[in-house]
Write a structure and sequence with these properties.
This protein has 196 residues and is an alpha+beta fold. The radius of gyration is 16 Å and the shape is globular. β3 and β4 form a beta hairpin. It has eleven helices and four strands, in the order βααβααααααααββα. A four-stranded mixed β-sheet has the order 2-1-3-4, with helices on both faces. Helix content is 53%, strand content 8%. It has one domain: Glutaredoxin, CATH 3.40.30.10.
């Protein structure tokens, strides 16, 4: 297992729990490095994709809606067809490019808002372009970057790394060799990160 020198926040834009975690992680684990991964591909490697695709999303919507309301966040509104018809590699690749431009957090938070506040599918290019614009990036440049082989490879490498490190769900925060899976475990991750 690769042990990072600083905490790593693994996420995918298809996860509303990652959306919740993204709103809090900078307050709890500010030193965490954000790392986008292709979670369905990881699930496929684990042999769990088919069962995940059959799961009824209704309880997740209810739970995330409750947590968002308790935290004073905007009303949770997943896009039509979520989760099956809304997942895409494009926003993950855009996030990698945004990271190269020093705007990963800004882009990611804007993309999560597009998906789970505005209810727009990130499989469509317009919400990804809008998130890029909100993050201070040139949407046309982002659109071109998501086609670059090296950007595609980095999403793949991030996903392979997460799998090799034992990540089985998202969001996950890796602190040393410890994994904290779930929005509700960020406080534990923060405590682990604070240990000398």
């Amino acid at each position: 297992m690769f042990v990072a020198a600083r905490p790593v926040f693994y996420f995918d834009f298809g996860s509303p729990y990652a959306y919740l975690a993204a709103a809090r992680i900078d307050d709890l684990v500010p030193e965490a490095e954000w790392r986008p991964i292709a979670f369905p591909i990881l699930l496929n490697e684990l042999g769990r994709l088919e069962s995940a695709m059959r799961r009824d999303p209704t309880p997740v919507v209810a739970e995330v809606s409750r947590r968002a309301a308790e935290r004073g966040m905007p009303t949770f509104k997943p896009p039509p067809g979520w989760p099956l018809q809304t997942w895409s590699l494009a926003p993950l690749r855009a996030a990698v490019f945004a990271g190269d431009s020093g705007r990963l957090r800004e882009f990611s938070k804007a993309a999560f808002r597009e998906a789970f506040v505005d209810g727009r599918s990130l499989a469509d290019p317009d919400p990804v372009r809008e998130a890029a614009r909100e993050a201070g990036l040139d949407p046309a440049e982002v659109e071109e970057a998501v086609q670059r082989p090296e950007i595609k490879q980095r999403v793949k490498s991030n996903t392979e790394e997460a799998l090799a490190n034992g990540v089985t769900g998202i969001p996950t925060v890796a602190v040393g060799d410890e994994l904290f899976w779930g929005d509700d475990r960020l406080e534990e991750a923060a405590a682990a990160a604070a240990r000398p």
